[in-house]
Each structure stands twice: as structure tokens, then as C-alpha cells.
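Entry 14. Structure prediction run on the chain below.
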Amino acid sequence: MGALSVVWSILSTLLLIYFFVMWARFVLDLIRTFNRSWRPRGFWLVVVEAVYTVTDPPVRFFRRLVPPIRIGQVALDLGWSLAMLLVIVLMTIVSGLSAATAGVA
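Output returned:
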């Protein structure tokens, strides 16, 4: 296993972890949508803060790039969807590069 394969493997693992963190943010956003009075406490406060801290930069970037689309009284926010799409595309690219690097050795 070459050094480049190790790099692709680590990057793939980090992207997979980030993929799951993005889903955690989705679930937290759903909870906050349906129960506005919900406030995490204790250990969960730390977890929720970590999830939002890690996922906010790309979601905000895509919100600025593509502002929420107004449909009557509802606003369709594409920030999370575009950030998740980027993560999935990057996972696919890294997986392909990892396979290509493994085939060369």
C-alpha cells in the first residue's frame, strides 16, 4: 500500500464522517423545525454545537450562492442539499482516485 493510497483512504474516511455529520445536522434541523422550544442540555449541547460548527461554513456558503427560493409563504433552502451533493461528489472522486492508485501499484 503506497503513501498515496493511505492519503486517499484517510480522505475517504474523513468525507464519510462528514457525510454522517451532515445527516445529523439534517435531523437536528428537523427537530428544531417541529419543536421550536427544544434546547439541548449537557452532553447533547456539546454534540449539537460541534455539528453546527463543522457544517455551518459550507451550508452558509451555498446559502449565499443560492438564496432560499420563496414559494408563497414557504422558503426552500438549498444550502444543505448543495453541501451534501458536494460531499457525495467528492466521495465519489476520492473513491475513484483511490481505486486508480491501488491499481497502479
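The chain has three helices and two strands.
Filed with the rest of this week's runs.
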